[in-house]
Amino acid sequence: MGRAPCCDKANVKKGPWSPEEDAKLKEFMEKFGTGGNWIVLPQKAGLKRCGKSCRLRWLNYLRPNIKHGEFTDEEDRIICTLYASIGSRWSVIASQLPGRTDNDIKNYWNTKLKKKLMGLINPLHQAKFSSSPFSASTQLLTQPLSQLYRDYNSFYNQAAPKSLSPIEAPQNFLYNFPLSTTQYCSSYYQQNQEGLVDLQYNFNPVKDNNNMLIFGGNDQASCSSSDGSCSQISYGNKDHVKQEEIVGQFQGLINSNNGFHNYGKNFNGDPIMSGLVNSQLQCDLEEVKQLISNGNDNINLLFNDENKTEKMGMYYF
DNA sequence: AATCCCGTCAACCGCGGTTAT
DNA sequence: GATAACCGCGGTTGACGGGAT
């Protein structure tokens, strides 16, 4: 024998909530809280609703400190970064955005943010940067990372030096990418004496023991969740690094996404980049995700100012 | 003015893990 | 231990409003 049914399914109201229902629920919650049981709440509060419906209404709309309205650029950046790292775990993403609900973020992603990103990387825009050595074609690249770095600087120093402001990103940044549910790959980037970017990488069969994703160095930002079940996410120190360093990171990330197993060094000892860089950009969701993932923390480049499209083209090739 | 189309978002549905009986 | 509800989550739906035709 199990429990008694939670409610009389035939006698509960469905559909949009009326202001009167909202008022009842809000008043009850403010006086008594859930009491740890959503199922009996509607009865006590005098609502002809299923407890599940009450819970949703409260969490997504009525509870205090809910933020409605436009998402900020910073919020955009966080959503993109986390989506690239952990996928559609909206509750975890929501835990990083105080006042935002998972439902809100999910809707925002599906209706706006995803399209925004796809629009930014459309072929027309690609054409604008077709002279970039990084957007030339869909091809297999096997160049030393340092050469890519030089090419990139050479190109963009001529093309648009003024629009590239210093980029905020952690230095010596440790990225963790999910390989599977039990395996993560870490890629580690540093600037060497010549100002070029070396790449170190290793495979960690140790996903987080505590469901923790680590995005950076030593400093951590705390995380809390409305339901107490949050996965923890910490960010590293936010040293400023120069554009050149970002380039190195970015190259490495592309490589990461095109197959970790191909990672390696050439005969000269230079890290090589191997894998397809797709300039056709037929953007389905997975590809948007991949593109975000390529930029990873550098996604903040997209949300810096009015010239978002301009910057997108520069950094996504 | 009527209709269609599309974007938005609140709410529902169903699943998987957990918990009470 | 078995059963069935609870709970939280992510995917999907459908009502609504505004713009286009």
UniProtKB/TrEMBL annotation:
Alphabetized InterPro entries for the sequence: Homeodomain-like_sf, Myb_dom, SANT/Myb
Main location: nucleus
Entry annotated with the keyword Glycoprotein: no
Myb-like domain: residues covered: 9-62, 63-113
GO CC term (a single one): nucleus
Record flagged with keyword Membrane: no
Source taxon at top rank: Eukaryota
Gene Ontology MF: a single term: DNA binding
Domain HTH myb-type: 9-62, 63-117
Protein name: Transcription factor RAX2
Organism: Buddleja alternifolia
